[in-house]
Amino acid sequence: MSNYKFSEIVNHLVVSGFVFPSSQIYGGLANVWDYGPLGAELKKNIKQIWHREFIQKIPCNVLIDTAIFMNKKVWQATGHVNAFNDPMVECKNCKSRYRADYLIKKNFNNENVNNMSFDEINNFLKNNNIKCENCSKINNFTDVKKFNMMFAVDFATTRSSNENIFLRPETAQGVFVNFKNVYRSMRKKIPFGICNHGKSFRNEITLGNFIFRTKEFEQLETEFFCEPGTDDQWFAYWKQKCFDFINLLGIKKEKVRFRDHEKSELSFYSKETVDIEYNFPSIGWSEILGIANRTDYDLKRHSEYSKENLKYNDLNNSYFPYCIEPSIGLDRLMLTILVDGFDKENVNGDERIVMHINPLLSPYKVVVLPLSKDLSKIAREIFDELSKKIMCIYDESGSIGKRYRRADAIGVPFAITIDNETISDDKVTVRDRDTMKQKRILKTEIYNFIANILKNY
Ligand code: GAP
């Protein structure tokens, strides 16, 4: 686990402009967060690498971008209306709601809860003295209820009509309902993948841990369609691919592990699921992403409910393909990258906070620092030139040491200092965020120098 407290890292991320509490001037909204300028850039950079690794470099995969609103029948067909439930209890005294399985896990460190049915969870709660975290009453919970996690919204077009639909709880269904559209229009042959990304919504009972579990979050999902019988092999392929992706992002290997889902824990659509977990400070091992074998469940169900034939046809065969799904939570992945990169170091008796994140992910790649205001003009010219190609910040206020610290604390990988000698020799000093080593190079070479380093990531 990290040496730092989760709360200390969260505080840094809020103060420095990665994440802000949503609608803060009105007192905020519990567990809802906005991404600030640094968070928005980081998110965009992660998506770009996901796109490169899952779509651009895998030509049999394509990207779609589907609507959040979907016909209600989608969720009846998939089983989400009946089966997308969490076990919920309410404190009879203060009405606080809890996920019953989380209460058991937390109070008894009991991982077996993943294998328990709703009835078993209920019995366990009744026979063990668990305190309400809000009012401290002991063993005063309602029976466990099934709580559906989908948000219903009024989609009515007139005041008298009553038309509730659901906000999508996963982006995956946008793919299944478009399966035929995509494979026909793009003339795809099995195996191929359809990726979808965007916001998903779940009415989670237990929230918290900052952006780890929220009601509104973003997913990067791939639905990879293959011939039945080849699914185990493709499952292994995507499992490895996801692990490589996590490594590529620079997350420390020793803090990442696979965890297979127990049979009783599997989602209603899954034959096999494995999570990639990260060892978060304070929270412990927790899921960042999952890879599931959804079999032919979704296409079959949509065929049945929509009466559209969603079988795949080639010259000799007609069948429902199996689907392997690597599903990534973008917000959780962001949190992992930020927590993993956060560090505090002693530099000649001074403390520096530094975000050792993969330079490709850094919101800003370069900070341009004139040593004195007399050098502003030349520094501005360098900034303007570099900004045409990469994200840069210009900083001329405070001592050079303070300016280095500010840039380190938000993970800027390169600092370019312009000093009096620059006027005569056309050279600047480039400082590396991680090693703090410095090198003098020609100002005309700055971009090539940085691009050469970035291309290794
Ligand atoms: N389509 C499959 C699916 O949605 P999931 O395991 O429920 O599977 C996939 O979700 C990923 O989405 C998770 O690994 C997690 O990263 C992210 N995720 C799920 N619920 C979330 C929530 N309430 N807040 C933030 N991220 C969430």
Model description:
Strands 3-9-10-16-13-12-11 form a seven-stranded mixed sheet. The protein has a five-stranded mixed sheet with strand order 20-19-21-22-23, with helices on both faces. A three-stranded antiparallel sheet has the order 5-4-6. The protein is built from 15 helices and 23 strands. The protein has helices at 6-16, 37-56, 72-78, 80-83, 100-108, 118-126, 172-176, 179-185, 231-248, 297-306, 330-341, 376-387, 400-409, 420-425, 446-454, and strands spanning 19-21, 33-35, 61-64, 85-90, 97-99, 145-148, 152-154, 164-166, 192-201, 216-226, 256-260, 272-280, 284-295, 312-313, 318-319, 322-329, 342-347, 350-355, 366-370, 392-394, 414-418, 427-432, 438-442. The model has no long low-confidence stretch (mean pLDDT 95). It is globular and about 75 Å long. Helix 3 packs across helix 10. It is 33% helix and 27% strand. By secondary structure, the protein is α+β, with helices and mostly antiparallel strands. It folds into three domains: 6-75 and 151-339, BirA Bifunctional Protein, domain 2 (2-Layer Sandwich), CATH 3.30.930; 85-148, Herpes Virus-1, CATH 3.30.40; 364-455, Rossmann fold. Residues 170, 172, 202, 204, 213-214, 217, 219, 221, 287-290, 325, 327, 329, 331-332 line the site of glycyl-adenosine-5'-phosphate. Residues 170, 172, 202, 204, 213-214, 217, 219, 221, 287-290, 325, 327, 329, 331-332 line the site of glycyl-adenosine-5'-phosphate (GAP).
Shape: globular
Enumerate the strands of the largest sheet in spatial order, edge to edge or round the barrel: 3-9-10-16-13-12-11
Helix fraction bin: 25-40%
- The average pLDDT value, as a whole number, equals 95
Distance between the termini: 25 Å
Class of the largest domain, according to the CATH hierarchy? Alpha Beta
